[in-house]
Amino acid sequence: MSITDEELALTAAQAGAAVVRAMYGGPLTRFEKSADDFATAADIEAERAILDVIRTARPDDAVTGEESGRTGRDDAERVWLVDPLCGTLNYAARGMLVAVNVALRTGSGVTAAACADPFSGEVFWTGGTGGTGGIGQTDGTGGARAYVRRDGVDEPLAPSAGSRLVDVNLDPPFPNAPGFRAVRLLAEPGFAERFRPRVVSTTLAVTWVAAGRRAAYVTDGQLEDSVHFAAGMALCRAAGCVVTGIDGRPPHTGAGGLVVAADRETHAALLELIGEQLPSGR
User: Is 180 strand, coil or helix?
Assistant: First the structure.
């Protein structure tokens, strides 16, 4: 292993980002996945580039790709989670708000992760903790490293609630509906008094919480081993954010979903607002 896992995640994410950037604005073949979902040729080609990097360096690791599915041993201890173009709808409409996500799950936790912005040239990354416990803790006190790389220079990520901007994911599925619907947060008087909503529709916004560009991010969903969210959650934990499910429990337990906040005060305020929707006892 001549390349570290975190550098491999960075290299793979950059390879995918180069494809996404090169294919932007051109004619794109669409591949229907369901009635409300599709992939583009850019998704397919970016994932191929990412997998080539990973398989060359780590041929024995398993991979779960958004487009190609699971490959490798079913009992593999190390599994790469790959989302080659998060924000396909944005991209297909010639929007630049997209992300390329690569994460390594080792045992029960994510131990390396990278999220690339193809158009800013930034790559957000974390890793180097080792073991099976994963990066950071649910309260963001894990002590792992989290950086943004620009032009080959790494700068530490520093969460901040100062912007008051909270990104809310409005895309399905909604497993906690009708009890909880993230869209109802936008109409809450308490939300409007304290925060300013944003709807970016890509998990790049999760990374922005770690970078201090968002105060928080909220989504419903069952996110365990999610190719969309694994990298962003790992980055936020390593940067010191507060990361829980929508009911305040550890991620992937209880009601599920995700509330990631720059600090405890912001997190508590959002949980209070969400709690007004959740059925009692959840």
Answer: coil
